[in-house]
Amino acid sequence: MFGYYLDLALHSLKRNKVLTALMVLALALGIGATITTLTVLRLLSGDPLPQKSAQLFYPQVDPYPENRPFSRSGTKLPWLMSYVDAMNLLRAGKAQRQTAVALAQVKVKPRTTEGKPFYADGVMTTADFFPMFDAPFQYGAGWSAADDDRRVQVAVISGFLNDKLYGGANSVGRMIRVEDRDFRIIGVLKSWAPQPRFYALHLGSRNYGKGEGVFMPLQAARADGIGPSMMMSYGSGSSMEHLETSPAIWLGVWLELPDASAVSAYRLFLADYARQQVALGRFQKSRTALSGLMAWLRGEHVVPDDARLQAGLAFGFLLICVVNTVGLLLAKCLRRSREIGVRRALGAGRGAIFAQFMVEAAIVGVAGGVLGLVFAELGLWGIRHQPAQYASLAHLDLAMFLFTFVVALAASLVAGLLPAWRACAVAPAPQLKAL
Amino acid sequence: MQIQPILAALRRHRLASILIAMEIALACAVLCNACFLIVNRVQQTRVISGVDENALAAIKLTGYDPARGVDLNARVLSGLAKLPGVQSVSAINQVPFGDHAGTAGITTDPEGKRFGGVVDFYVGGRGSFEALGVRVVAGRLPQPADYQPVDFFVPDDSAVWVTHALAEHLWPGADPLGKEFWTGRFHFRVAGVLAHLARPYGGEGGPNTIEWSVYVPAQPGARLAAVYLLRADPAQLPRVLRDARAAMATIAPDAVLDSKASQTIGNLRENYFRQDRVMAGILVGVIAALLLVTALGIVGLASFWVQQRRRQIGVRRALGATRADILHYFQTENFLIVTGGIALGMLLAYALNLMLMQHYELPRLPLSYLPVGALALWGLGQLAVLGPALRAAAVPPVVATRSV
After folding, report:
1. Are residues B116 and B239 in the same domain?
2. A269 to each of A262, A282, B22, B318, B338, how far by Cα in Å?
3. Which residue among A320, A328, A332 sits closest to B294, beta carbon to beta carbon?
4. How far is A320 from chain B (nearest CA, A)?
5. Among candidates A309, A199, A420, A120, which has minimal Cα distance to B353?
6. Inside any domain, residue B268
7. φ, ψ (nearest 5 deg) of residue A432
C-alpha cells in the first residue's frame, strides 16, 4: 500500500507544482535556519572532554573581605584563587590529580632561526595538567611534579607551534626563547583544543578557538617574571612582581575526583580548609564551592547570549513555517474533496485516506530536509565568516546531518496531521452527488 | 462594502482562516521583537566617541624591555614626527575602541567611602589633548605645567578633565570645576569639562556609563609608553599609518608591533562593533525570510479560495457585481483575517518581550512598535492577496452558466 500512496502523493504534488514548491521552500528555510543555529549552539555548549568531564571539578574559596565582596550582590564566589590557596590545595594532594592554571601572553622566538619574535598564548601550569586533561603527545612528554618544585625551565609546545617553528619535526630537546629566557622543549602535543576552552575561563582569554602555543611550569615561568593575563586584587599592596604573596586571585584550580565518595570527601576537606583559613585570619568568609566541569561552564554562562538568541529566533521562524505548511497542505487536500469522495466510495477506509495524506506530507518534509540541508550549509558558511571566536569551528557533523531529517520529518508530519484528519473526515456521498 | 456576508463566508472556512491569523500573529510577535533588537543594536553602534576619529590612528608596541620605556618613547616620538604627513604624535595610555588600560574605581572622598563608580582614565602626554580634538565646554585647556611625571598609573596629584556625563553623575546639578575625587592614593581636581569622550570598551556597567572618562595630562615615561596617538589629514591617514607601522621595524626593532591595536580609530571602531552589525544583519535576514514565508502562505491559501469559489464569483458577476466589488471582497476578507491575527500577535509580542527581558539585558518593548508592526502586516497581507484577488476579479460572469 505504501508504494501506492507514494505514487498518489507524487502525482498530487506534481499536479500543483507552484504550491508544492512554496511548501518545500518555506519548510526548507525554517529547517535551514534551525539547523544552522542548533549546530552553533551544540558546538558552544558541548562537552570539552566527553570521556573525562564527569571526573573534573573546579573548587572555589572566598578570600575577599566582608566590606569588599567579589561581586556586587555578594553571592558569587571569586572565579579564581590566590597563589597561596592554590598551592595549599595542590600540596594537600587530596584529589587523585590537581593542577593550577594561569594564562599568559608570551613573546616567543625560536632559538635556531633568525626570525622576528611573535606573541603566542601561553599556559603556566603544573605537572598534572597533561594527564588530567588527556592532552595527547606527539613527541616527548610533560614534566614531573619534581620539575615543578625545582623550577626547571622546560616547555611543552603545541602541534601548530611545532609546525610553525620546526616544520613539524621532532623538536624535543631543542631550546625555545620565551620572554627572552631559554626553555628546553620536552614535549610536543598533537592538535588539542577542547571546546569550550574550559580551563581558560576567566583567565583573560577567549572561551573558544584554537588552543595555546606554549605550556610552562608555573613556578619556573613566574621566576622568569612572566605575568598572568588576568589578575584581580582583593586588598591593597598587590603588585605584579610579588603576585605569590599579594592579596590577588589569578589561578584556576582543577581537580580530578574519580567517584562520588571522593567528591564528597573533597567537599568536606574544602570546607575544613576554609574554616581553618578563617581561624587563621586569612579569610573572613568560610563559603566554598566545588562544581563539576559541565556545571561550572553552565553556571558561568559560557554560551554567548547572541547564539542562544539566534537559536530562539530560528525556532520561532520554523514554527511559522510549519503553520504555513499546515495552511497550504489544507488548501491542497480540501481541493481534492471529490477525489477523496471517489476513493472512499470505492472502498478506501478513513485510515487509508489518512495514511495517503501523511505520506504526501512526509514527502514534502524529506524534500524540505534536503533543501534545508543546503540552506544550513550556506548558513554555516556565513557563520564561519562572522567575527566570532567560535566561527572557524562551525561545521555540520553526522549527528546534525541526521537530525536535520528528523526535524524535517517531524515538522512536516505535525503539519500534515490536521489536513489529513480533515481529509479522512470528508463524507463521500455529497462529493459524489456534486460530480 | 458589506462585512456581514464576508464573515458568514469566513465561518465556513474557519480552519484555514484561523491558520492564516495564527501565522500573522506569530509573525507579528517575532517582527516587533526583532525590529526592537535591531534598533537596540544599531543604537549601541552609534556611540559618540568625542574625538576626531577620521584624523587619528594608534600605534601600540609590546614586548619591549620595560626598563627602556623612556628611551623607547624618545625614539618613537621623534621618529614618527619626522614621517611626512604626520601632524602630531603623542604618548597616551589608551584610545577609544582600543584595548583599555586605565580602568579604576573612584571615590568622592579621600577616605574611600563614597564610591563614585568605575571610570576610565585617559593618561596622555603633551599634544594628545589637542590631537584627540575633544571639545571643552567649561574650564580651561591643559597648560604645560599640568603634564606631570607618572610613577605608577597616574600622577599623584593632577588637574583632570572629566566628561559632562561623568560630572552630572558625580555631582548632579553642581558646578564640577574645582571638585575633587580620589582613587586610592591618587588625587584629582577637575580643571575642565569635556562635551564627549567615550571609554575604550564602551559601557560595561550599562549604557549610561559609556562616557565615564577622565583625561589626565602626564609626562611620557617608563609607566606611560608604548601606545602612541598619530594625527594626520584624514585623506592621508591610511598612508601615514602604513608608513608609521613600517617605520617601527627600524625605530623600535626591540619591540613587537601589536598590529590588531595599531589601526586608525575608524577601523578600531569598525572592528569593535562588527559583532553587533552582523547580529543586526542576521535579524534583518530573519525578518525578510519571515515576511516572505508569511506572504507565500497568504498567496497559497487565497489562490485556493479563489479557485474554489470561481462559480460563486461568476454568479455574483452575473447578478451585477463589478470587478471592483470582487476585488474589494477578497481585500476586505484578507484585512479582517489579518486584523484578527494582529490582535493576537500584539499580545504574543508582549509576552515574547517579557521572555527576552528575563534572559537578556533588554528594555521593555516600546508600545510604538506595535502599530508599526500592525501596519507592516496589513500592508503585507494586502500585497499578498492582490494577485489572487485580481485573478478572482477577472473571472467572467459566463462561468456561472457552466456546469451548474
Report:
1. yes
2. 10, 17, 58, 93, 65
3. A320
4. 6
5. A309
6. no
7. -70, -35
Q: How far is CA A128 from CA A146, A159, A186, A266, in A?
A: 11, 20, 15, 18
The C-alpha cell of A281 is what? 585570619
If one counts every other C-beta atom within 10 angstroms of the C-beta of residue A90, the result is 22
Residue type, B313: I
Whether the Cβ atoms of residue A432 and residue A359 lie closer than 8 Å to each other: no
Judged by a CB distance cut-off of 8 A, whether residue B349 touches chain A is no
Sign of CA dihedral B127, B128, B130, B135: negative
Same domain for B35 and B70? no
B83 and B29 in a common domain: no
Same domain, B134 and B173: yes
* Residue A272 CB neighbours (<10 A): 12
The total of structural domains in chain B comes to 2
Does B22 fall in a domain? yes
| H-helix or E-strand spanning residue A105 | strand A97-110
pTM: 0.78
Mean pLDDT by 10 residues, chain A (435 residues): 81 81 88 90 86 92 82 80 93 92 86 70 93 93 92 92 88 87 92 88 82 91 87 73 85 93 93 92 90 89 82 88 88 82 87 90 92 92 79 83 90 90 84 69
String of DSSP letters for B138-206: EE-PPPGGG-EE-SBSB-SEEEEEEEHHHHHHHSTTS--TT-EEEETTEEEEEEEEES----TT--TT-
Q: Is B260 within a domain? A: no
Strands of B256-257's sheet, edge to edge?
B86-91, B227-232, B56-62, B256-257
Q: How far is A178 from A114, CA to CA, in rounded Å?
A: 15
Claim to verify: residue B209 and residue B300 sit in the same structural domain:
no
Interface test with B, best of A315, A323, A418 (most B CBs within 10 A): A323
Q: Which residues pair with A254 in a beta bridge?
A: A99
**Residues B181, B314 share a domain:** no
| B145 shares a domain with B215 | yes
What's the number of CA atoms in the CB half-sphere (13 Å) around residue A385? 6
Out of B26, B275, B299, whose CB is closest to A323? B26
Cell of A110: 625560536
| Same domain, yes or no: B227 and B101 | yes
Domain assignment of residue B12, given as a range: 4-45+275-401
Measured over the CA atoms of residue A83, residue A86, residue A90 and residue A91, the dihedral's sign is positive
Which of B282, B299, B357 is the best substitution to test chain A (most A C-beta atoms within 10 A)?
B282
Region class of A84: left (phi > 0), else alpha (psi between -120 and 50), else beta: alpha
Please judge whether B297 and A332 are an interchain contact, meaning their C-beta atoms are less than 8 angstroms apart.
no
Cβ <8 Å between B286 and A33: yes
For the question of an ipTM over 0.85, the answer is no
String of DSSP letters for B7-36: HHHHHHTHHHHHHHHHHHHHHHHHHHHHHH
Residue B238 near chain A (CB below 8 Å): no
